[in-house]
Amino acid sequence: MSNKVHIKKGDNVKILAGDSKGKTGKVLEVVVEKYKAIVENVNLATKHTKPNAKSPKGGILKQEMPIHISNLMLVDANGKATRVGHKKDEKTNKSVRVSKKTGEVIK
Fold first, then answer.
1. 41 and 63 together in one domain
2. CA 63 to chain centre
3. Are residues 97 and 54 in the same domain?
4. 6 and 48 in one domain?
5. Which residues, 6+ apart, have CB-to-CB distance to 90 below 8 Å?
6. pLDDT for 33-75, tens place per residue?
7. Dihedral of CA 32/35/41/45: which sign?
8. What is the structure's pLDDT at 2?
9. pTM of the model
10. How far apart (Å, rounded) are the C-alpha atoms in residues 104 and 41?
11. Statement: residue 13 has pLDDT above 90
12. What pLDDT, on the 0 to 100 scale, is given for residue 106?
């Protein structure tokens, strides 16, 4: 498995599989080594915590868990899920991400 990922922190993505299928959310973190991403308010797990300095009462917390990147699809500016391609930018000569559906550059 190569460590190339088509999703970056801050992207809006659609969930393709799992309990959260069909939901969309913002990527909070990408773990390239494990090929996973953490998406805001998606794939929530219940975590029980003991009282400590950070949370004096302790209790039950809802926490986002990582999702495999293959189960995520980027959502473009139009709000549609799209595959991601790469091409060279003429001005800067750098590789940019491009929407396969519309051909627009993804910011």
1. yes
2. 15
3. no
4. yes
5. none
6. 999 999 999 999 999 999 999 888 999 989 999 999 999 999 9
7. negative
8. 62
9. 0.80
10. 28
11. yes
12. 86
Phi then psi for residue 71, to 5 deg, are: -95, 10
Is residue 35 domain-shared with residue 55, that is, in the same domain?
yes
Q: Which residue has the tokens 């926490």?
A: 63
Q: 52 with 5, same domain?
A: yes
Q: Are 16 and 56 members of one domain?
A: yes
What backbone torsions phi and psi does residue 43 show, to the nearest 5 degrees? 60, 50
Average per-residue pLDDT in the chain?
Answer: 90
Q: For residues 27 and 55, what is the distance between their CA atoms, to the nearest angstrom?
A: 25
The reply to whether 63 and 30 lie within a common domain is yes
Structural domain boundaries enclosing 39: 1-75
Contact between 72 and 5 (Cβ < 8 Å): no
